[in-house]
Amino acid sequence: MAVNPDTFRDALAQWPSGVTVVTTLADGKWHGMTASSFSSVSADPPLVSVCLLKGIYTHDLIATSGVFGINILAADQTELGKRFAGMIPDITDRFDGVDCHTSETGVPLFDHALAWIDCRVIFEYEGGDHTIFVGEVLDAGNPRKSAPLLYHSRSWGQFADQLPEKAAVADVGITRLETETGVDLSADKTALAAAGVAVSPAEVVVDSRDPATVEAAIAAQAKVGIDRVVLLHAFDPDRHDAVLFAASNLARGGFTEVVLDDTAADANPLIVRQRLVDVSVRIKPSVTGVCLRDHAGLGLANALAALKSGVTQFDTALGGMGGLIATEDVLYLMELLNISTGASRAEAVEVAHSLARNLQLPRAVEPRPTWML
């Protein structure tokens, strides 16, 4: 007895897959459709396959032209997947605004896909109501390193966030306070270090807006051996590619810890998520860190977004000095999420109390509410 068609479709819907846009051309015009029925076939020779329903336009074009491209979409390209699936009305040109190039076959290949594959059809097989096109890979590229777009149970999605088991917290505010006030805070810094919070680790500072400082930092790293670099203006919403380029070069240049600094308070959870997902993948095995500001009450929201994006190093300041996210707040967040820091929040809070009492600091560094203790 044949399986019920609806049951069969529902069963297949439980299989998660990546999302691709299959492209081809006819009479010099580009065509494309969203598909998930793509698979690798062979590494030597390099072969891939795509299964397309007989009778649809793209199927017939590939059968006629003998060429196709595979564009693997990233997690932030849901709109692109829906566009080429015909799910967005009133779009007459699906390629409008999509940066593309061509390679060996002339089919459109997406500049900002996770990967693209340029293919020539060498075999066609009957597969029921589908045709299995096997393509010889003539060229391929990996423009981005990011999380993939997924499709499961007729819904678009991405990998579930995995929080780290461990994270490190540093205080970069107390040394700045010491410099500004001229007061010797050696005892407080020692107490903070004893609490498990790193105090102003040695670092090189780079401005992401100035490529010359990136090159200078790489040259300095080779001479002085400082492994940590702070990248200023790292959450500027208009400089995504520039920040990725700078961070990647710094990691390749020998820095094992790259800290993205929210210098101009540009960060929000969406920007943090988008920026860090791309950076953390690109600079591995280097550690991704952040120095966030607590503007508009977004400090902990940004910190949580950072944790979900692979960050394991947080630069902070006791009591939120200088507008940075407060050390004790971050430690509290880590406790709630069962993330080990090796630091004692109670001891860090006591240092904050000591600073507030001894230096008569403003409200920003007064003791935290009792529920935080």
From TrEMBL:
<dbReference type="GO" id="GO:0010181">
    <property type="term" value="F:FMN binding"/>
</dbReference>
<dbReference type="InterPro" id="IPR002563">
    <property type="entry name" value="Flavin_Rdtase-like_dom"/>
</dbReference>
<dbReference type="InterPro" id="IPR013785">
    <property type="entry name" value="Aldolase_TIM"/>
</dbReference>
<dbReference type="InterPro" id="IPR012349">
    <property type="entry name" value="Split_barrel_FMN-bd"/>
</dbReference>
<dbReference type="GO" id="GO:0042602">
    <property type="term" value="F:riboflavin reductase (NADPH) activity"/>
</dbReference>
<dbReference type="InterPro" id="IPR000891">
    <property type="entry name" value="PYR_CT"/>
</dbReference>
<dbReference type="Pfam" id="PF01613">
    <property type="entry name" value="Flavin_Reduct"/>
</dbReference>
<dbReference type="Pfam" id="PF00682">
    <property type="entry name" value="HMGL-like"/>
</dbReference>
<comment type="similarity">
    <text>Belongs to the non-flavoprotein flavin reductase family.</text>
</comment>
<dbReference type="InterPro" id="IPR050268">
    <property type="entry name" value="NADH-dep_flavin_reductase"/>
</dbReference>
<keyword id="KW-0560">Oxidoreductase</keyword>
<feature type="domain" description="Flavin reductase like">
    <location>
        <begin position="12"/>
        <end position="158"/>
    </location>
</feature>
<protein>
    <submittedName>
        <fullName>Unannotated protein</fullName>
    </submittedName>
</protein>
